[in-house]
Automatic annotation (TrEMBL):
Taxonomic source organism: Methanosarcina vacuolata Z-761
Source superkingdom: Archaea
Keywords recorded for this protein, A-Z: Coiled coil
Protein name stated in the entry: Mobile element protein
InterPro entries, per the entry: IS1634_transpos
Coiled coil (residue ranges): 341-368
């Protein structure tokens, strides 16, 4: 639904047009346009009355046209059609269907079922004509042309284009994430759908996992969809193989590449595999080098100030990991220390309050009888994973005459001290011993590039992976593949428009506010399409990306 919303800013009322929709069961704002004060709205109305035409309908155009521009730059439709075997018939090609799916999802359409309605309200309906309906089955039919081998060939060709445009990777950042699904693993036939540790805490749902590798320009180069019950460290070996194969396809020497990954991927086999093919910068778990956390801060040197204004310090040394000595840097960020300390205290207080409440309920004679197993499960739900070494507990058999077990809990002060020593610190290790300490730390901390990409993959107005409603593995893989291609489109667009200094969010907002309107001249009654008023930066973007060429006639 669309409605007017008034906001009081410094006591003055300002008006917005707002569109709300239900997302994952909750009503959220999906679109907002600032109109201004009542006086400005009145002025706009008078200006409209003086114009030589009447507006019939307005369409969002900028983001749509920008995605069509990236499609042409990368040759996406042609690459897809080259690798899919579909008879020449009237209607859209496989490449056009997939592009339409990407564009629809980037406009908040969360399933293929909704694309037909969105298409009718979009200016793309003026541009693409075909003799049949856009229903969910059409899109599922096109997905059947895309198997794992075809996806690899499409990604290979897209990466080849990226390299030709100067985006050859010299550093690659790897990370993993997961998404819960609404699919049931019937008779355990699915390879992908399994329960596991879910980042949204939906352990009741089957999930899928995705690994992603991006280059130093934040351009996605490789992804892998894998089963929801496979630990990240086990999957890591597979993504390393894919990176090596992709580089081989692109005639890039893997020995020149630096791989950056976090401590969740550590294992002796993984480290040995990486250093046999390329260089790396990684992070160690605290218990792998606990003595390094005792180094006094007086031995740390100032390195640089990050984008948040926090000063980063580092202490360089050598340390052995997995039987090999590596250059090691212990880093310290006071801003992170304060944040982690505050978060720790808040969570600890909540856990203790909940345990005290459970303890009180177990001591009460009221309520149902409880067994040890049910209490164990509730305690496990209360104590977060990272607190299980700090907050200890014991479940005592129900005393005579009582129908509930008793709970005893306490804080392990020794383990708490060990935990607190890690706040604000990170232990990095690398085989790039010739690198300056600052470069090692900055390179690892740039890992937030891939972490930011996973945030975009959770944004329902950009390139959402979730929610996942598909039940078949092959459709799930294509669904994730299209989200990754959408991410590639946006990251390429941001790289191309980097001269404007916009964040991704700012760039998309600027493009989304570029609109076209179907108008009718008041005298001749002829209809035409015009671009609505833009600010100077939008006009510059419009010209720079040559978005005029996609205007429907």
């Amino acid at each position: 639904m669309v409605f007017l919303r008034k906001k009081l800013i410094k006591g003055k009322p300002y008006w917005y047009i707002v569109e709300a929709a239900r997302v994952n069961g909750k009503v959220k704002t999906v679109f907002q346009i600032y109109l201004g004060s009542a006086e400005k709205i009145l002025e706009m109305k008078k200006q409209c009355e003086s114009m030589p035409y009447d507006k019939l309908k307005s369409f969002e155009y900028g983001k749509l046209a920008a995605l069509l521009h990236v499609n042409e730059e990368l040759g996406f439709i042609d690459i897809v059609n080259k690798h899919t075997d579909k008879k020449l018939i009237d209607g859209l090609s496989v490449g056009e269907y997939l592009l339409l799916d990407i564009i629809g999802k980037s406009h908040g359409i969360l399933s293929e079922n909704g694309i037909e309605d969105w298409f009718k309200k979009s200016p793309i309906s003026f541009m693409w004509k075909f003799p049949h309906k856009l229903n969910c089955q059409n899109f599922l039919n096109q997905m059947s042309y895309i198997d794992s081998d075809t996806m690899k060939k499409i990604e290979d060709d897209l990466c080849r284009v990226l390299v030709e445009k100067g985006l050859t990777p010299s550093i690659m950042f790897v990370d993993e994430s997961n998404w819960f699904t609404f699919a049931t693993n019937y008779d355990e036939k699915s390879e992908l759908l399994h329960k596991g540790y879910n980042k949204k805490h939906r352990k009741d749902k089957n999930q899928i996992c995705v690994s992603l590798a991006v280059n130093e320009n934040n351009i996605p180069f490789i992804h892998e969809t894998y089963p929801g019950n496979v630990p990240d460290s086990e999957e890591f070996s597979g993504i390393v193989d894919k990176i090596i194969n992709r580089l081989t396809e692109l005639n890039i020497c893997s020995e020149d590449l630096v791989l950056v990954f976090d401590k969740g991927n550590n294992s002796k086999d993984n480290i040995e595999k990486v250093i046999s093919k390329m260089s790396f910068v990684g992070a160690a778990k605290a218990n792998q080098a606990e003595e390094l956390l005792d180094v006094p801060l007086s031995r740390y040197n100032y390195l640089y100030k990050n984008t948040k204004g926090s000063e980063i310090f580092g202490c360089r040394t050598k340390h052995q990991f997995y039987g090999t000595e590596f250059t090691t840097v212990i880093t310290y960020n006071e801003g992170t220390y304060k944040l982690q300390k505050s978060t720790y205290e808040t969570n600890k207080s909540k856990i203790i309050d909940q345990l005290q409440d459970l303890q009180r309920r177990l001591e009460s004679s009221k309520g149902k009888e409880r067994n040890r197993s049910s209490v164990e499960n509730e305690v496990s739900e209360i104590i977060l994973k990272k607190f299980r070494t700090v907050i200890k507990y014991e479940i005592i058999a129900a005393p005579e005459g009582k129908k509930k077990p008793q709970l005893k809990f306490w804080v392990d002060e020794e383990n708490e001290k060990r935990c607190e020593k890690t706040f604000g610190k990170n232990i990095l290790f690398t085989d790039k011993q010739e690198w300056h300490t600052k470069k090692i730390v900055k390179t690892y901390n740039s890992k937030n590039l891939v972490e930011d990409d996973f945030k975009l993959l959770n944004d329902h107005l950009l390139v959402p992976v979730g929610p996942v409603y598909h039940h078949k593995d092959e459709n799930i893989r294509v669904h994730v593949f299209l989200a990754m291609i959408g991410l590639l489109f946006y990251r390429y667009l941001a790289w191309e428009a980097k001269i404007y200094g916009f964040s991704m969010k700012q760039l998309i907002e600027k493009l989304s506010e570029i609109k076209i309107a179907v108008v009718q001249e008041k005298e001749s009654k002829k209809s035409k399409i015009i671009v609505e008023e833009m600010d100077t930066k939008q006009a510059s973007l419009f010209s720079f990306l040559n978005l005029e060429k996609y205007l429907p006639s």
